[in-house]
Automatic annotation (TrEMBL):
SMART domains from the UniProt entry: Trans_reg_C
SUPFAM superfamilies, A to Z: C-terminal effector domain of the bipartite response regulators, HemD-like
One Gene Ontology term of the molecular function aspect: DNA binding
Protein name: Uroporphyrinogen-III synthase
UniProtKB keywords: DNA-binding
Residues of the DNA-binding region: 279-372
Record carries keyword DNA-binding: yes
Pfam hit, one: HEM4
Record domain OmpR/PhoB-type: where: 279-372
Length: 383
């Protein structure tokens, strides 16, 4: 995991905490987020089986060399390159490329097309949208009855795609260029789940469908799936790099945000647009106080706040005039129970975190009001 304490004080994502589930290119995504001010929590939701050690890929490669397919569908650039590199390591590289030169080769998008051409091959066709649905439509329009179609899988079985082809009469061969497995150390994933369900995250990013499916599966195994889904529906923004990645979440009724271009940079830019729009800003006794994720900005200065203080701020900010009933405030404070001193304790910690002795609480009609000016105490005491 990244160090959650190293929170930059500037940038569009300052104050927000973002979870990263990626196994591959996680460092790149984390660095992009941190440069824009975010606190990053990383827990790879899966691990990738090394290509050279994958007996399933070796068997599939030998089968395709021995029995030529009519069509090969390449789905990811890194997967296609890895497939050829692995075949080279097994002494089958030239045989594989020779076989691919004699078949109809389809590329899922521009990046895959580039990887194909880098190997001296030429694709028959490629959609500009990187959509597997367009690839499927083309194949069905051509007619697949009796044809043998090999699909380079990108970590997931693509059941809808494969089933549609088989229903139309095709023989489909899966090429598992890299396979996803559960992480060897499940501890970071569990901590990420705990942070999500307790609203310790403001956003959760997904760069592959298997990562999303793996996290949902782990949540279900721990009995936390309803809590995770509730968090993703209301408080934790689920951000996916593209529509294929979003499928496992959408199957659970979760709406996601996705960039127009399916890349890490646009994904980060999307978060820079979405998360600040969720910030709540209110004037309090002449000061501008803005709740930004898991920090508070007072008159433009970002102040990290402990969980109890943030819970108190959020509970107060949901009510007009920042007035909230005592019982509701106690429920909002983590671990407060029915302790009547919990509010005073949380307020003291909040005052310390914000660095101002003027932060006070005022009882108003058996509720609480937050103020940043001692004069506000007398002003609202009899309201």
């Amino acid at each position: 995991m990244y160090d959650e304490q190293q929170r930059p004080a500037a940038g569009p994502l300052a104050g927000f905490t973002v979870g990263v589930t990626a196994a591959r290119r996680a460092d790149e995504l984390g660095a992009l987020l941190q440069r824009r001010g975010a606190c990053v929590v990383h827990a790879p939701a899966l691990r990738i089986v090394p290509l050279a050690d994958d007996s399933e890929l070796l068997a599939a490669t030998k089968e395709l060399i021995d029995q030529a397919p009519d069509v090969v569908v390449a789905t990811t650039a890194i997967g296609f390159r890895g497939w050829v590199e692995a075949a080279d390591g097994w002494g089958l590289g030239e045989d594989l490329l020779g076989r691919l030169r004699g078949v109809e080769l389809l590329a899922r998008g521009p990046k895959v097309k580039g990887a194909i051409r880098a190997q001296g091959l030429t694709e028959e066709w490629s959609p500009s949208s990187e959509s597997m649905a367009e690839v499927l439509d083309r194949l069905l329009d051509e007619g697949v009855d009796g044809r043998r179609i090999a699909i380079q899988l990108h970590g997931e079985p693509l059941p809808g795609f494969v089933e549609s082809l088989r229903a139309a009469g095709a023989e489909v061969v899966g090429v598992p260029v890299y396979r996803w497995m559960p992480p060897e150390d499940i501890g970071p994933v569990d901590r990420l789940l705990d942070a999500a369900v307790t609203r310790g995250l403001d956003a959760l990013t997904f760069t592959s469908a298997p990562a999303a499916a793996s996290l949902l599966s782990r949540a279900e195994h721990r009995g936390l799936l309803p809590e995770l889904l509730a968090a993703l529906q209301h408080d934790v923004l689920p951000a996916c790099v593209g529509p294929v990645t979003a499928l496992p979440l959408q199957a659970r009724g979760i709406d996601t945000v996705q960039p127009e271009r399916f890349r890490l940079g646009p994904l980060v830019q999307l978060l820079c647009q979405e998360l600040p729009g969720r910030a709540r800003a209110l004037p309090i006794a002449g000061h501008r106080v803005e709740i930004r994720g898991h920090a508070v900005m007072v008159d433009g200065a970002l102040r990290p706040v402990p969980p109890a203080g943030m819970s108190l701020m959020r509970a107060l900010s949901r009510r007009p005039g920042w007035v909230v009933a005592r019982a509701e405030l106690l429920r909002a404070l983590p671990g407060a129970g029915r302790d009547e001193h919990a509010v005073e304790t949380a307020m003291a910690r909040l005052r310390t975190a914000l660095g101002t002795p003027k932060l006070i609480q005022t009882v108003v009609k058996r509720g609480y009001r937050l103020a940043l000016d001692p004069a506000a105490d007398s002003k609202y005491a009899d309201a």
